[in-house]
Amino acid sequence: xxxxxxxxxxxxxxxxxxxxxxxxxxxxxxxxxxxxxxxxxxxxxxxxxxxxxxxxxxxxxxxxxxxxxxxxxxxxxxxxxxxxxxxxxxxxxxxxxxxxxxxxxxxxxxxxxxxxxxxxxxxxxxxxxxxxxxxxxxxxxxxxxxxxxxxxxxxxxxxxx
Length: 161
Description:
By secondary structure, the protein is mainly alpha-helical. It has five helices and no strands.
């Protein structure tokens, strides 16, 4: 009972203190609607890891942009942010590298991190959509002597001919 009481007190404090849970209007939404001790500890750990890896703003921005609503989506969002950061840093260092072998290694790391970030985006999309994909098939029937254009037309002045 004492543990639960302590956890509830920490949960209430976290609504103001934790970076993920803090909800200032228009900036961050409350991601811990019904916080318990575990969710507070988890949020705090994610925040510390973002801070340690210097991707706080990027990680939170990716999570917010993705509308991350659960731990899995937040973790993947943060991993995407870190992979992006490492990729960009390694690519930048490769541009200024004078040893070809080291330059190549840095470019390989950057390429792997870019691929990981892209895979993270795909995984996040699958989580958000339940792994389903919608394909719209449209049939166009054209009578003899008629004309059809397949695709999206922008600024078409088709009647001018």
